[in-house]
Amino acid sequence: MNDPDRAAFCQGPYGTEGDPADCGDPVRFEVARHRRPPLRVCPVHLGPALLLADGVLWPPGISLIR
What we know:
Elements: H1 4-7, E1 29-31, E2 39-41, H2 43-52, E3 62-64
Antiparallel strand pairs: 1-2, 1-3
């Protein structure tokens, strides 16, 4: 995620960069993960990311951004 333009788009729901499931919506939330960079997602993928992404903390650490 070195490209600042790329960082502005949703990585949900799995958080794997370049994943075909990546969405082009703007990022609104950041989800904390264990030993991984935070997962930046749109409102649509917040719920699925909490359930499906690797390393999500529980209880989840969610920050509203933008």
